[in-house]
């Protein structure tokens, strides 16, 4: 059940391609969390797109020659295992590079930064409901059992 913020230069992708990438990123995060194709988990996975003017993203005070990407993934503590984060970051980098039309290259992957934020129990509240990773996992398990 991630909340994802995707920051990118507005010239990199058109609005439709940004939506496709947002969906791909949300799917990758849900897979890493173990939720797979759960419809419930998908309904709780939100992506906030932040297309920015090219001049709003700088590197050493100048507009970079190649696009820079920033992805922030926030989820309740325990949703994403610490050892899953490096592999997920690589999959996210692959998705961003593919979306911009760049073949996979570990050097180019350094243009994609992924920041993880584990939100403590009690600090993730939807309306008046405190979100807990174990409760979400239980709900997804019930959904799968009913299918």
Question: How would you explain this protein's 3D organization?
Answer:
α1 runs antiparallel to α3. The chain is an alpha/beta fold and 147 residues long. It has a single domain, classed as Macrophage Migration Inhibitory Factor. The longest helix is centred in the N-terminal third of the chain and has 19 residues. A hairpin with a 2-residue loop joins β5 and β6. Helix content is 39%, strand content 23%. The mean pLDDT is 94. The protein has 5 helices and 6 strands; from the N terminus they run βααββααβββα.
State the helical fraction: 25-40%
The order of strands across the largest sheet is 2-1-3-4
The end-to-end distance, rounded to whole angstroms, is: 20 Å
Please summarize the sheet with the most strands: 4 strands, mixed
What count of domains describes the coordinates?
1
Quote the beta fraction: 15-25%
Question: Architecture, according to CATH?
Answer: 2-Layer Sandwich
- The count of helical stretches stands at 5
Task: Present the secondary structure layout.
Blueprint: E1 3-9, H1 15-33, H2 39-43, E2 46-52, E3 69-76, H3 85-100, H4 106-109, E4 112-119, E5 125-126, E6 129-130, H5 133-146
Parallel strand pairs: 1-2, 3-4
Antiparallel strand pairs: 1-3, 5-6
Helix pairs in contact: 1-3
Summarize the structure.
It is built from 5 helices and 6 strands, in the order βααββααβββα. It is an alpha/beta fold and 147 residues long.
